[in-house]
Amino acid sequence: MAQRCSDCTFATAFQALISVAAVAVSAVLFYGGIGQAGNIQPKILKAKTLKKDKVNIITLGCSKNLVDSEVLSGQLLANDIHTVHENQRLDHNIVVVNTCGFIDKAKEESVNTILEQVALKQQGKLDKVYVTGCLSERYRQDLALEIPEVDAWFGTLELPLMLQQFNADYKKDLIGERLLGTPSHYAYLKISEGCNRTCAFCAIPLMRGGHISKSIEEIVAEAKALVRRGVKEIMLIAQELTYYGLDIYKRRSLADLLRHLSDIEGLHWIRLHYAYPAKFPLEIIDVMRERPNICNYLDMPLQHASDAMLKAMRRNITRHEMEDLIGEIRSRLPGICLRTTLIAGFPGESRNDLEELKDFLLAQRFDRVGIFSYSHEENTPGFTLEDDVPAAEKANRAQEIMELQQDISYQKNQEKVGKTFEVLIDKKEAGRYIGRTEFDSVEVDNEVLIQSVKTLPIGEFVQARITKAFDYDLEAVVAE
Questions:
Q1: 274 and 149 in one domain?
Q2: CA dist., res. 202 & res. 316, Å (int)
Q3: Which of 110, 139, 395, 436 could share a disulfide with 440, CB 3.0–4.6 Å?
């Protein structure tokens, strides 16, 4: 498939990517595709039938995109349109690709996925291909020109318009009525849309717009609907959780929201993702301490620790202020699991900046760390800076950080051996049950691997004693 051109700016590289996409689609359009040994295959035309439409939704990118796909599926189902997620049976006739446009690799994955679906359409295996999400929001005109075989393109906030393509009505009363793309025992709950920050590296405001909070009443109603369907863990997501409420209540209101959510009977775990460190409302830590069904877990991306980098990134905070905040959080809630995300290779990052970041990580000893190589995104404030750290060096720096964090994670996991934790069983694979503690979110954190001769129901909680620890995973047995 198309490869990114490393010798040009990303704007040019993306144009090159979708231009190659157009060539690939043209080959499919005129010839039907390439078979074994490079032989041209004849195009196969699909005979039209009166069979009822079936829609397959393919979701790329973050959990916020997943929620958007779930909401779309709920609307389609309410209009009596058969809808599935990530269908592998190829018995559907319409596809919606919900794209990601956050960084270059995500864009390439999105373009390639669109190409694959257009190829199926040209082979007569699909009737319609629609594209929505962040990539479509950001590059709609360019994509439409280069891949005209897509039937329609939609932005991130155009659900009612998309439904018109299906002759479906947008039903405002369907709060919480979603076709979950997750296992039935956990779900993501988006409490706001967009972001008002101007972080130099981030294109999210370009694709999602400014911050818009949902009301407490709407969020609570959605959470109750999810719990009635068997959801036991809700992960609150937003581009910035801690900004919640400023637009509609004129004050930061996450603590109030958490109190209402934690009162919902049957909601066993509430997990917080994507807090912003500047002007952090410490009241939420007090609520977390008081309410047992709010996980002692906080995902707070810090991005860097060098003051020079924090200023260049427009993070509105200093290293000293971050250290004070982390100290206060841990003082108010001892044992809290802190997860953060970092960026390697931002323009101007020196070896001294990197060493300062490593020193910060050694001092703070976060429980969980993720890291991205900087992606030079057009129309962001950072795009005016010279992207002066080579791609290979960015990758090397990211690897240095992860090797350092790997040692910290191993040491912290060793401290858990012999202790008993409540574990939510997510699935069974290769004869072992796989679950998580309250300190672990889905896909990005540790897993607990349990050998048990007894059947452990998926989606239920068990008490598990840790018997062995690795860098990122734990082994356990069911506690008697």
A1: no
A2: 14
A3: 436
Range in 8-22, 157-171, 304-318 with the lowest mean pLDDT: 8-22
Task: State the pairing for strand pair 192-193/212-213.
Answer: antiparallel
Contact 304, 281 (CB under 8 A): no
Q: Same domain for 429 and 283?
A: no
Say yes or no: 159 and 188 in one domain.
no
* Of 301, 295, 293, 297, residue with least CA distance to 264: 293
Among 465, 466, 439, which Cα is nearest to 294's? Answer: 439
CATH number at residue 433: 2.40.50.140
DSSP letter, residue 34: B
Q: What is the pLDDT of residues 238-280, one digit of tens each?
A: 999 999 999 999 999 999 999 999 999 999 999 999 999 999 9
* Residue 130 belongs to some domain of the structure: yes
- Please report, for residues 17, 111, 148, 302, 333, the alpha-carbon distance to residue 2 in angstroms, rounded to integers and kept in the order given: 6, 9, 17, 33, 49
Enumerate residues 6+ apart whose C-beta is below 8 A from 72: 57, 83, 96, 98, 132, 159, 162
- For residue 359, what are its two tokens? 């020193």
The single-letter code of the amino acid at 161 is L
> Is residue 21 assigned to a domain?
yes
Contact in structure between 314 and 198 (CB atoms under 8 Å): yes
CATH of the domain at 253: 3.30.750.210
- Let me know whether 279 and 209 are in one domain: yes
Helix axes 134-146, 10-31, angle to 10 degrees: 60
Residue 124 shares a structural domain with residue 235: no
Whether 60 and 95 share a structural domain? yes
| Adjacent-strand bridge partners of 341 | 370
Mean pLDDT of the chain: 90
For residue 391, being part of any structural domain is answered with no
Burial 154-184 (b: 16+ CB within 10 A, else e): bbbbeeeebbeebebeeeeeebbbbbbbbee
Domain identity same for 131 and 199: no
Other CB atoms within a 10 A radius of the CB of residue 356 amount to 18
Measured from the Cβ of residue 396, the count of other Cβ atoms closer than 10 Å reads 15
Among 230, 293, 275, 281, which Cα is nearest to 253's? 281
User: With the C-alpha atoms ordered 299, 302, 304, 306, is the resulting torsion angle positive or negative?
Assistant: negative
φ and ψ at residue 95, rounded to 5 degrees: -125, 140
82 lies in a domain? yes
Length of the chain: 480
pTM: 0.88
Q: Which residue has the tokens 């905070």?
A: 317
- Two structure tokens written together for 119: 């190829």
